[in-house]
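Data card: per-record layout.
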Amino acid sequence: MRFVRTGFILVAVASASFLGAGVAQAATIDVTADLLTCAAGVGLDADTLADLRAGIGRSVEVSAETEAELEAGGCL
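The structure for this 76-residue chain is written out next.
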């Protein structure tokens, strides 16, 4: 019985670790006209560009994937 309980605990901890690793992280960026111009050139999807346009002049949260695309394009 002790081995079953220990095995169950190990599986639960491993599952929690796996699920926690998959959580997307968000980044905060300042949206400027220059950033929007660069983001359009990078080829972000239309929904992301619309969200950025709505946040011009403010700090907004974007996904880690969007942040990586903007960094790769030299926008940040």
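Known properties of this structure: The helical segments are 2-21, 33-42, 46-54, 64-72. The two ends are 56 Å apart (CA to CA).

See the next section for split statistics.
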